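Good morning,

Attaching, inline, the backbone tokens for the sequence recovery test we're adding to the shared suite. The designed sequence is right after.
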């Protein structure tokens, strides 16, 4: 098996589409009343899937954490430390909830955290050099 991508189960699809499209710049073309979003971002599958749709598909009811949560994070990379600071200011000005302002960590990474409208953590970080897989 290989990792193909990741998805988020969402409650308010319209708010989440607006956030990932308008605040983070993901190329989401689906209408805000869609059931799910399926796109490839930088070679990685990204899915927004309606919670009720998933419950109907599996014939089960699930409990979901509300508010800011620490169950997972989405990590976004920029090439320079300055870009971390710029990206943080930009996404917060567009409506992202600030969680941790840009900080240079002891291991050499500059990082910051925001959250999306449903409390999922998003890290924006850099090791002050272009990303190299």
């Amino acid at each position: 098996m290989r990792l193909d991508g990741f998805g988020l189960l969402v409650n308010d699809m319209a708010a989440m589409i607006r956030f990932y499209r308008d605040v983070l710049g993901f190329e989401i073309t689906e209408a805000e009343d869609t059931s799910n979003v399926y796109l490839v971002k930088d070679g990685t599958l990204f899915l927004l899937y309606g919670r009720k749709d998933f419950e109907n598909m599996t014939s089960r009811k699930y409990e979901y954490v509300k508010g800011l949560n620490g169950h997972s994070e989405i990590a976004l990379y920029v090439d320079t430390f300055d870009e971390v600071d710029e990206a943080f200011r930009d996404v917060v000005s567009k409506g992202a909830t600030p969680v941790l302002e840009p900080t240079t960590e002891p291991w050499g990474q500059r990082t910051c955290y925001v959250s999306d409208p449903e409390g999922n953590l998003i890290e924006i970080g850099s090791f002050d050099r272009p990303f190299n897989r």
